[in-house]
Amino acid sequence: MKWRNRKFTFMVIPDANSAVKRFHLSSFALAVAVALVLALIVSCATAVWLYRGNVSRIGQLELELSAATGDYERILEDKDVHINELQTDLADLAEQAKSMATRMKDINSLESELKEMVGLDAGSSSASRKASGAENDDGEYAMDGGTGGEELPVSDAEMNQLVDQTRESLQSLGKQIATMKPKLELTKEAVAKQLQILAVTPTIWPTDSRRITSTFGIRKDPFTGRATYHAGVDIGGKTGEPIYAAADGTVTEAGHSSSHGNNVLINHSNGIQTHYSHMSKIIATVGSKVRKGDIIGELGSTGRSTGPHLHYEVIVKGEHVDPEPYLKATRRSQ
């Protein structure tokens, strides 16, 4: 093309005394130079535009990062608070586990005491502490006393140890609870059977008086002065005082004899009989069912007697035995 062959002359005059410098550029070279200048201008403009845009974006990202950092700090604070709450809850749970263990020991102690009350074998647990909240053999302690001491931070190792101890305590309690119900059911059945036995066993005083005037065995007869066998115990009292059935049973005799005076014989259905003599009045009737503590007559001095008293006999499988070991309780504590 012709325009490519065209040349342009550029003159540079440094000053008045210097020679003029001339440069000749073809149209193509000039076009390339102009293009390069324009490209440089465009590149610079683009760079400036991108820089401004990046500066704005960087500012926005910094704001977002600051906001996110604040959120994360709040989340961490919340987590710290939550962790502290969990640690506190764990400490409470550990205390509850200790308290439950103490209560379990109390229940075992009460079970042993109940067995002892009805005459059952309480086992080795009968030596455990009473349910009074005092320190027991294993160092457990009541949870209702005072506390104090210096407050120190809890380390991770100590917290992990508490977690393990609490887990073991709860597992142990779970096993104890799993075995407690059938164990208590067996105890309930045994106590019920024992109560049935106690109901027909003469274990209470037949009178309000506790004054024994003559014991069981060989003694000097008050009428003849000779040694004779005394088949019961004599309990002194006042005429008209109530006489009580020493156990549940059926009245098999209720009448008068020259030696026993007004007397009542009760069969207790377990091979044991009780005999009450010298009554001033008989209240029970033959064939009637009586309960332990029922009034069967009144104290007196009928028959072969020197004064108001109750002659009380206990007969086991047809043989007279000493009644004193059976005189264990009052009607109120039976």
From TrEMBL:
Residues 229-323 form the M23ase beta-sheet core domain. It comes from the Bacteria. CDD domains: M23_peptidase. Residues 76-103 form a coiled coil. Pfam families: Peptidase_M23. SUPFAM superfamilies: Duplicated hybrid motif. Residues 121-153 are annotated as: Disordered. Keywords: Coiled coil, Membrane, Transmembrane, Transmembrane helix. The keyword Nucleus does not apply. InterPro entries: Cell_wall_metabolism_enzyme (IPR050570), Dup_hybrid_motif (IPR011055), M23ase_b-sheet_dom (IPR016047). The chain crosses the membrane at residues 28-51. Residues 122-134 have a biased composition (Low complexity). This is Peptidoglycan DD-metalloendopeptidase family protein.
